[in-house]
């Protein structure tokens, strides 16, 4: 598995679409919200909803842009 940490650069996103999300892939929104939001898409390793890198980031504060993206994701998912 991976040993990504928050000090390393983000893994190159696969930019999968909302329709491709499931518990096996990371649903961290890579782009700002909207119909065409792209998601990280890396394997969650059995611990959804994020890959190891984004799980680590999600536990931290995150940037304001990331916080906004997560809010938008929730809005999309509940539509
Ligand atoms: Zn991820």
> Compounds present?
zinc ion
Instruction: State Rg.
Output: 12 Å
Question: How many H/I helices?
Answer: 2
Q: Report on the biggest sheet.
A: none
Low-confidence stretches: none
How many structural domains can be distinguished in the coordinates? 1
Give the strand tally: 0
β-strand amount: under 5%
**General shape:** globular
**Helix share of residues?**
25-40%
| Protein structure class | mainly alpha
Q: What number is the mean pLDDT?
A: 80
Distance between the termini: 34 Å
Order of helices and strands: HH
Summarize this structure briefly.
The chain has 79 residues and is mostly helical. It has helices at 52-59, 64-77.
Entry keywords:
79 residues; globular; binds zinc ion; 2 helices; mainly alpha
Q: What does this molecule look like?
A:
The structure is a single chain. The protein is an all-alpha fold. The chain has one domain. Helices cover 28% and strands 0% of the residues. The protein is built from 2 helices and no strands. The longest helix is centred in the C-terminal third of the chain and has 14 residues. The model has no long low-confidence stretch (mean pLDDT 80). Bound molecules: zinc ion. Zinc ion binds next to helix 1.
Please render the helix and strand layout as text.
Elements: H1 52-59, H2 64-77
Bound molecules: zinc ion.
Zinc ion (ZN) is lined by residues 26, 28, 40, 42, 50-51, 53-54.
